[in-house]
Amino acid sequence: MSELDLLELRQVSRQFGSFKAVDEVCLTVRAGARHAIIGPNGAGKSTLFGLISGTLPATSGSVLVDGQDVTRLPVDRRVGLGVAATFQHSSLFLRETVLENVLLAVLRRTGAGLGGWRKVSARAATVEQARTLLERVGLPARHEVAAAELSHGERRQLEVAVALATEPRLLLMDEPAAGMSPAETARLTELVAALPGEVTVLLIEHDLDMVFELADTVTVMHLGRHLKTGSPDEVRASAEVQSAYLGSVEAAS
Fold first, then answer.
1. Distance of CA 161 to the CA centre of its chain
2. Which of 107, 141, 165 is where one domain is finished?
3. Cα 51 off chain centre by
4. Would you state the pLDDT for residue 120?
5. Is residue 154 in some structural domain?
6. 3-state class of 16 per DSSP?
7. Which of 165, 180, 214 is the last residue of a domain?
8. Strands (DSSP E) found in the chain
9. What is the domain count for the chain?
10. How many helical (H) and strand (E) elements, i.e. helices and strands, does the chain have?
11. How many Å apart are CA 40 and CA 42, to the nearest integer?
12. Number of other CB atoms surrounding residue 213 within 10 Å
């Protein structure tokens, strides 16, 4: 692992019974990168995401963040080390307001617990920070709206604000454009592209137009294994990548 790398996977595997969903994957993610993981259905992308975020334990191998082994650490400990994630399925508090969802994320970062809710929400500086994050993600006029009332695209925007409230160094995004209209996807792409350079982004995504517009590095998985990592142009031109996708289409037809 070089000094420029923030995340490293060393022969990471995950088995479900006899089935190896992720098979000895080795990967490094450079600090400040916009790195995408793609692959046909069943490639193991979401399982790999779980191993990095901490929602799934690895069967073998190691996950390192900034040189520290986090393989056995739970999600909350990884958040404390600067790892935040947005998931395919919303993890928002739908009854709470948009602003309250971001403030609750601040509580999580500070370790104050829910008992510290009134104290944190009463701090003007903390509330202002939350409002600034909501403006950054494009929700400046939705502070007092319940999260349940947001559109699908707006919920994705709020999830990014919640993740940023934990002050991450590594932001993991699991299929952020899933279920979005083209216009919503375009707004989300602009949002992620505009994130500060000190936030490293690793996303799993099926929308290849979004991937090739946003990512500076692309990793392709196939049948649980690492197939190729390179620039978007290198991945586009790869015969083995084209074969993997073509094979997936033929198998489904």
1. 12
2. 165
3. 12
4. 56
5. yes
6. strand
7. 165
8. 5-16, 19-30, 34-38, 60-65, 68-69, 83-86, 170-174, 200-204, 217-222, 225-230
9. 2
10. 10, 10
11. 6
12. 16
Is position 146 within any domain?
yes
Do the domain assignments include residue 89? no
The amino acid sitting at 51 is: L
Other CB atoms within 10 A of residue 244 CB: 20
CATH number of the domain enclosing 173: 3.40.50.300
List, edge to edge, every strand of the sheet that includes 170-174: 83-86, 170-174, 200-204, 34-38, 217-222, 225-230
What CA–CA distance (Å, rounded) separates 204 from 35? 9
Q: Which pLDDT value is given to residue 249?
A: 44
Q: How far is CA 174 from the centre of its chain?
A: 5
For residue 54, the surrounding DSSP H or E stretch is none
When pLDDT is averaged across residues 33-57 and rounded to a whole number, the result is: 95
The CA distances from residue 90 to 95, 150, 245, in Å, are 13, 12, 28
Residue 192 vs residues 8, 18, 20, 157, 185: alpha-carbon distances, Å: 22, 38, 32, 10, 11
pLDDT of residue 117: 54
Against a cut of 0.85, is the pTM above it?
A: yes
End-to-end CA distance of the chain: 41
- Rounded CA Rg of the chain: 18
pLDDT in tens, 185-199: 898 899 899 999 999
Nearest to 224 by CA among 3, 30, 4, 18: 18
Longest dimension (CA), the chain: 58
Cβ atoms within 10 Å of 10's Cβ, excluding its own = 17
Taking the C-alpha atoms of residue 193 and residue 214, their distance in angstroms, rounded to an integer, is 6
Percent of the chain with pLDDT over 70: 88
